[in-house]
Recover the amino acids of this structure.
């Protein structure tokens, strides 16, 4: 997969925002490896206050616990880059916001930090509607740090579109 350009991310953000507005949803983001990039893309769109509630960038274990309610046992047993953690992140984002739909991301953007079982480019993305069940998907992106992060933002937004369909 080729990393999306700024123009492609802008187009995805605009389309997602239009859909959120039409369905009267408010979005919250919980981001680790993207450091707020999803929230930035969404709020770059004029009128985003009509469908964007807030975003949380939580890199450390402590921040994931304090801001998103991720359990210490989850982080100890499965690590930050896991299905279990992203599910707790996306659920916690809804609990700690006024939003109706959430997206969460956690992964290894590189260049370091990877391991044999979780190489650089491994990213978990989770989506959840208030009152619904979380959905999570793992991705294995290629490229440098910027490319992994761009692909993560695009995957998160595409997944939101699918949740809103």
């Amino acid at each position: 997969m080729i990393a999306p350009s700024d123009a492609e991310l802008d187009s995805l953000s605009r389309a997602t925002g239009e859909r959120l507005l039409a369905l009267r949803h408010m979005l919250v983001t919980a981001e680790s490896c993207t450091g707020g990039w999803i929230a930035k893309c969404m709020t770059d769109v004029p009128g985003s206050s009509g469908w964007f509630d807030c975003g949380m960038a939580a890199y450390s274990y402590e921040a994931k616990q304090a801001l998103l309610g991720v359990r210490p046992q989850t982080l100890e047993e499965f690590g930050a880059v896991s299905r279990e953690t992203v599910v707790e992140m996306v659920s916690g984002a809804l609990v700690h916001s006024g939003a109706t739909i959430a997206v969460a991301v956690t992964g290894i953007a590189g260049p370091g930090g990877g391991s044999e079982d979780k190489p650089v480019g491994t990213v978990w993305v989770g989506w959840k509607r208030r009152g619904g069940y979380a959905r999570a998907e793992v991705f294995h992106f290629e490229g440098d740090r910027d490319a992994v992060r761009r692909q993560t933002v695009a995957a998160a937004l595409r997944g939101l579109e699918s949740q809103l369909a």
Remarks:
- The beta strands are 27-31, 52-57, 101-107, 122-129, 135-140.
- The helical segments are 6-22, 37-43, 61-68, 72-78, 83-95, 145-164.
- The domain at 6-164 is CATH 3.90.950.20 (Maf protein).
- The radius of gyration is 15 Å.
